[in-house]
Amino acid sequence: MKLISAIIKPFKLDDVKERLSEIGVKGMTITEVKGFGRQKGRTEIYRGAEYVVDFIPKIKIEIACEDHRVAEIVEAIREAARTGKIGDGKIFIFSLENCMRIRTGEWGEDAL
């Protein structure tokens, strides 16, 4: 099993969700996060004073899946989230040792 964690631009969330639904992804977790990388921050003016916003709002998507679905899910996220501009985000893939569905007590891939 794998855990796919993707950081994307907030306005691409609906596109990513729709694309993942098309390929049969049944669940995901979404978190509003902030961060910076090559996109850096941006300068804003508030009440005449200029200040730098270091952290850019992003969305973090987490999906637990079977090993054989990883490439398909990663490609779907990449296609839907890509704008071709700096700050499109990143996708991380982690090995998932185990999981359990609380309601039924199922373990492993049965719990996904």
Tell me what you see in this structure.
With 112 residues, the protein is of the alpha+beta class. It has a single domain, classed as Alpha-Beta Plaits (2-Layer Sandwich). The chain has two helices and six strands. Strands 2-5-1-6 form a four-stranded antiparallel beta sheet, covered by helices on one side. Strands 3-4 form a two-stranded antiparallel ribbon. A hairpin with a 2-residue loop joins strand 3 (42-46) and strand 4 (49-53). The longest helix is centred in the C-terminal third of the chain and has 12 residues, at 70-81. The protein is elongated, with a radius of gyration of 17 Å. The protein starts with a strand and ends in a 17-residue tail after the last strand. The mean pLDDT is 91.
Concise structural overview:
This protein has 112 residues and is of the alpha+beta class. Helices cover 20% and strands 37% of the residues.
Tell me the layout of helices and strands:
Blueprint: E1 2-8, H1 13-22, E2 29-35, E3 42-46, E4 49-53, E5 56-65, H2 70-81, E6 89-95
Antiparallel strand pairs: 1-5, 1-6, 2-5, 3-4
Helix pairs in contact: 1-2
